[in-house]
Amino acid sequence: MMINLGKRPEKLIQDVRYWYGLFSHRRGDQVWKGMLQLALHRMMKWRRQYWVMRTQEAMMLPQLERQFLQADLAQVQALLAQCSPDEDPVEHFQYGQRVQMLQGKLVAMPASINAAPAGAALFFGGRPVAGSYGIKAAFSGQAIEQFQEIVSQRFAAHEQGTLAAKGPVPFGDETQLLVTDVVRGSFGFVLQVPATNSNGDKATLKAAVDEVAETLFQMSASDDTLFDQAAALLDDRQLGTLQTFFKLLDDEGASLRLVEGERDFELDRAAVSRARVRIEGLSIVNREQQLDGQFIGWSDYSGQFDLVPHEGGNVVRGVITREVLERVEREGINPYKQHVKVSLKVREISVHNRSPKLAYTLTDFEVTGVPRDWPAQLVQTGDGVL
């Protein structure tokens, strides 16, 4: 790094401000940095220590690293636009090189995010938080504990299906996340999967954390359809924990920003209250149903199906259990266009002042024959008649 001390004072101040800020402590993620004056013959020794510091810096979530890079790039581009290669070629070259370096890192960031282990950053705001100084210990402890419980329950539901109403959550020890960092801005915590977990557990746990983040977003969204989609995937155990989580946030007057994967969203006070009211007013009735029909839609990738009932009526749309998908793959079955008898789990979801919604889950099916009068039947869909 070289700075021309003979340039105009205002330009010199801008340069010093940028480079000093770049190499000073970073409050957002508590990365400590500094400036060193080194003799060239000592560079190899300090180079090794530099990489130790870089390794510590790289421990933060890549999603947060991307935000720092984007802010840094915007600042350097503004400085580059103000300098001239004729007036100060060294300065112009340095800023140009840094722009290229930052752009290269940002291009590679999506791959880093996808390859990163399960993790999320939870930033809290509102009454429990004293600026960037601190947060109420009782509130933060309860909030992290309940978020962890939601993750563990979602993981267990993936592995074993509907959870029992009481008792220990299966795989509770295997799904524990670690608090690996405290992040300031508002006040937040970085939670990540332990390095000791097996690759298979890491992948499944990452999927569970991803689904929990999506559920929190959908539960608080202004669009009722998103709330219905999230509610259809919850059992009573998960629903109870989510009620406790949103009640805590609402009673404490807290807001939440969650960074996970490619997601970065904030639940302000209105969103938190909306989620609480919806969940506390939610009523779910489960029942089993058998139905004869024809699959007119089947997706292994999204795990969804469309079924035309033989008896007529609306097309039934829903999700396919993992067990059914595994059986289809194992037996080499192509369900599309097959006439079948299906076993469905039907959930009737009711919220105050709204009509009930039905959510279907396919738990089993067997291939049957084509009804004699099938070609003559008309099938009612949501958009008309097939």
Task: Give your account of this protein's structure.
- This protein has helices at about 10-20, 45-55, 60-80, 90-115, 135-160, 200-220, 225-230, 235-250, 270-280, 320-330, and strands at about 120-125, 130, 135, 180-185, 185-190, 255-260, 265, 285-300, 305-310, 315-320, 340-350, 355-365.
- The strands form three sheets. Strands 4-5-1-6-7 form a five-stranded antiparallel sheet.
- The relative contact order is 0.09.
- The longest helix is centred in the first third of the chain and has 27 residues, at about 90-115.
- It has three domains: about 10-115, no CATH class; about 120-280, no CATH class; about 285-375, OB fold (Dihydrolipoamide Acetyltransferase, E2P) (Beta Barrel), CATH 2.40.50.
- The chain is about 45% helix and about 25% strand.
- It is built from ten helices and twelve strands.
- By secondary structure, the chain is an alpha+beta fold.
Annotation keywords:
five-stranded antiparallel sheet, disordered C terminus, 12 strands, OB fold (Dihydrolipoamide Acetyltransferase, E2P), five-stranded mixed β-barrel, alpha+beta, 386 residues
The arrangement of helices and strands along the chain is HHHHEEEHEEHHHEEHEEEHEE
Radius of gyration: 27 Å
Rounded mean pLDDT score: 81
User: In percent terms, what proportion of residues is strand?
Assistant: 15-25%
Structural class: alpha+beta
How far apart are the termini? 71 Å
Number of self-contained structural domains: 3
**Percentage of residues in helical conformation:** 40-55%
Q: Which stretches of 5+ consecutive residues score pLDDT under 50?
A: 40-59, 377-386
Backbone shape: elongated
Put simply, the count of helices is: 10
Physical arrangement of strands within the biggest beta sheet: 4-5-1-6-7
Number of strand segments: 12
Characterize the biggest β-sheet. Answer: 5 strands, antiparallel
